[in-house]
Design brief:
186 residues, seven-stranded parallel beta sheet, globular
């Protein structure tokens, strides 16, 4: 019942379009701007006091997942995340700027596992969370992976299939594994 009220109130007052097939966990920690579109089978998880903030005109396409457990995920205005893309905060804060395009099957991971102790199984060692910042007007191509602690500069492009392990300079075109600059934009 809580989900239905949330969807209807946002439709009425903020002109949002939220599919009834979406999964919303920790609904009290989800904040939506005007004209947000949440398509079929999108998964939003704000358990353990996580927070998700979607500003005006944000679109989450089919089968996207945002898990903000213990952390936060924020999308700036006019940003879009394509089908089957995933964002896991893992206790970190993930901030996505305005007018950002995220292609299909992109993974943005705000944490990693510690593995230095050989006597303790890796799954029992602590997780290390680091914030991720994706500045305004960035295009992230299909099937990219972005790891914890990364800053992607304003106006940059990340080519499809790239693995981003280092910060990306503004207004550059970057590709590969590991992702490296191939030229400046314009």
């Amino acid at each position: 019942m809580k989900k239905i009220i949330f969807i209807l109130m946002n439709r009425l007052y903020k002109k949002t379009r939220i599919s009834f097939s979406s999964y919303l966990k920790g609904i009290e920690n989800i904040s939506l701007g005007r004209k947000v579109k949440i398509n079929h089978n999108v998964y939003l998880d704000c358990s353990n006091n996580g927070k998700i903030n979607l500003n005006d005109n944000v679109t989450l396409n089919h089968f996207c997942q945002l898990q903000a457990r213990k952390g936060s995920i924020t999308f700036g205005i006019n940003s879009e995340m394509n089908n089957f893309s995933l964002i896991y905060s893992g206790g970190s804060n993930i901030i996505i700027g305005n007018n950002v395009l995220i292609g299909p099957r992109v993974n943005i991971i705000g944490y990693s596992h510690e593995f230095s102790e050989k006597s303790i199984p890796i799954r029992e060692q602590k997780c290390i969370s680091k914030n991720i910042y994706i500045e305004d007007d960035v295009w992230i191509g299909a099937q990219c992976t972005i790891f914890a602690g990364i800053r992607i500069g304003k106006g940059s492009v990340i080519g499809a299939g790239s693995i981003v392990t280092k910060d990306i300079l503004p207004f550059t075109i970057n590709v590969g594994n590991p992702c490296t600059k191939i030229k400046n934009r314009g």
